[in-house]
């Protein structure tokens, strides 16, 4: 447990959309929405996450890997071949963009853990998490930045429009999209540091600074997570992974652990609910994300937006037919959905949960 | 009589011009320094302990208590106290006793730690306008909880939580037994604990019936003397504490002299009047961690599974010991640092055994996390918590709550003179002499203690607000919000804290 780390701090803008009927839309929509909020970033990081983009490979984990040190490629690929069935290996398609002079080597692999590796009773998701933790914390120079099925994240150092063009975002079609532009105040640009942050199906974009980071990190470390990026987003992602996937808590209840209702409200609840939420706070006190944040997190079944418990960062939501939109600013929604059926500002700590049908 | 060669520590002086011969000082001094000489007050200054009772009660401000300016020749190695203690031992052949925590200038790490605050990138929160939560639950927490949704879509708990002690803020009163302190002093603690929504601890002196109305705010203690322990006693409070050791005297038992055992104390302790109350150094049924486990579970069985706390002195190997205690089934580990107070301890033990609480909290919290069992027990830190800032730093290092004793006694008039073991406390705190204890009106002094606790509550909220967090659990173990000044790399490493500027 090393305490000699420098935490990463940044402000940002975020936006996301979901079509509950799984109608896939081009990435150009979300790019348009994000680019409206250019003043919320400073060109030092942008990224996109999309669900439903690899329908033909939906049974395989799609590993997106960036190599700052291309020499690491063989080592990582050897490791993957030794432990996974690798269905396909390819470079992530990119387009030349003037403003982006250098980029890491970007590869993607569609993989499935070998049966014999799961012999010890470990689930394939856990196995993938271990692989990702290991490569990211030990290899130095290789970084798995996306590892879910039928989804992927694309991110790097640059402004939203350039990153979109670089990754040819408009060519992907997905039914859930999230996007993020970044205003780091203390980090040199590193591609891995951009958002979204993803692990398995979880992808997170986040605006804010979590003042409880120190304890959130130490809490996650107790459960074997290795926090290598030192960003709040990474902590939030692992927290959701722990609560929802490993502890089997529902999305809604997990949100109540991350942005816990105040005791005053809990005390006034009917007995059974009061008992449940008291237990939730007692048990998950160290999981409380305290400090200003708005977060969008996508997962295989939907999109969730959530604010900190006193709403110190903006979050607006809107619906239009089968679409639900969430963004830092209403204008970013109206840019791609001029006439929403309903627009609202979610209350502090109350999650907006949109699920696929 | 042979005049002691240990010079008096203090010179009590009375300005005979100002003095109006009211004799209040004679009445107030518990140590018998003053007597009436027919036309003026006589002063036996060698008995003076500088408790300042007389000073406060002199209506004319005629009294001054000076540190005796007559010293041995200055010597960087042979300090005043070294020479004086040798002389005292040469005269008595005994072990010099003392009260309160060590007064030697060991480094106090709390004074080398600074707390963070928010600027621009994350806003601070105004505790006067926004809710600020200090509520703390002590006890074993499961590593995860399961819920079911009932038909209306509300969550319900699948399995009951282990029992918890609810505190309105992460502060409690440390154990002080009836016997070591007066019943009135215990009443002050009980009234304040109830009013503030926190808990006091009986210490090992049993429970006086006058405290029965405060059971919701009492932890009962079982120590090596087993004074006053019976099934009713075990069930009388919200939790039971097994005392293994005390920071001021690790590895040492207790000795309450027969003079401090009048009828009331004897009844609470269930021993004959006037007999010495001896607490052996170890508990004679605990010689190993397995034995401790058996006692923990025996107590749990006897109390229908109330939380059990185990109190230990912070010693070199505290992390491993605490881990064993948690694995033995304790719900709370109470760590008492070497600066912690005492009613009576050999000076040599108090001043030279144990480790500071700051190191102990960090080491124990780290170890329990490494072993993945931090949730299994709460950590209480005690031993030299002087202010809400100390409390906040202890919590940031990893404690769930802090316990205070000296601080509470100071609100009752105590001046930390350190002579509690004599049983003459002029403030009526660490004495059983009825004419002295009568001075400590529980209602009046409880008001002062309540004021103090509320003041700390406000200060803690201000600190949280400046940190940009609104719940105490976000400070607990959040060492990222502490920085060290003037600490060496290794100490920083042990504390898990970065140096200021990083
Ligand atoms: S009351 Fe205290 S300060 Fe005054 S003479 Fe007695 S011992 Fe000294
Ligand atoms: S309790 Fe009394 S004897 Fe003990 S230090 Fe305080 S004033 Fe002195």
Describe this entry's structure for a reader:
The complex is a heterodimer of chains A (357) and B (502). Chain A has 357 residues and is an alpha+beta fold. Chain A has a single domain, classed as 4-Layer Sandwich (Glutamine Phosphoribosylpyrophosphate, subunit 1, domain 1). Chain A is built from 10 helices and 18 strands. Chain A has helices at 27-35, 72-83, 124-139, 160-167, 213-222, 232-246, 251-258, 263-267, 271-283, 330-334, and strands at residues 10-19, 25-26, 46-51, 61-67, 84-91, 105-113, 142-146, 151-156, 173-174, 176-184, 197-199, 202-208, 293-299, 302-307, 316-320, 323-327, 342-344, 352-355. Chain A has a 7-stranded antiparallel beta sheet. In chain A, a hairpin with a 2-residue loop joins strand 15 and strand 16 (323-327). The relative contact order of chain A is 0.19. By secondary structure, chain B is an alpha/beta fold. Chain B has 2 domains: 10-94, Alpha-Beta Plaits (2-Layer Sandwich), CATH 3.30.70; 136-142 and 169-474, Alpha-Beta Barrel (TIM Barrel). In chain B, 29% of the residues lie in helices and 16% in strands. Chain B contains 15 helices and 23 strands. Chain B has helices at 24-28, 53-57, 80-92, 183-196, 231-234, 263-269, 289-302, 318-327, 347-352, 357-370, 388-397, 406-411, 434-437, 442-467, 489-495, and strands at 10-14, 34-36, 41-43, 63-67, 97-98, 113-115, 136-138, 147-149, 155-157, 165-167, 171-173, 200-201, 218-222, 239-243, 254-256, 277-279, 308-313, 332-336, 345-346, 378-382, 401-404, 482-484, 498-499. The longest helix of chain B has 26 residues, at 442-467. Chain B starts with 9 loop residues before the first strand and ends with a strand. The interface between A and B is large, with 53 and 50 residues. The complex binds iron/sulfur cluster (SF4) (2 copies).
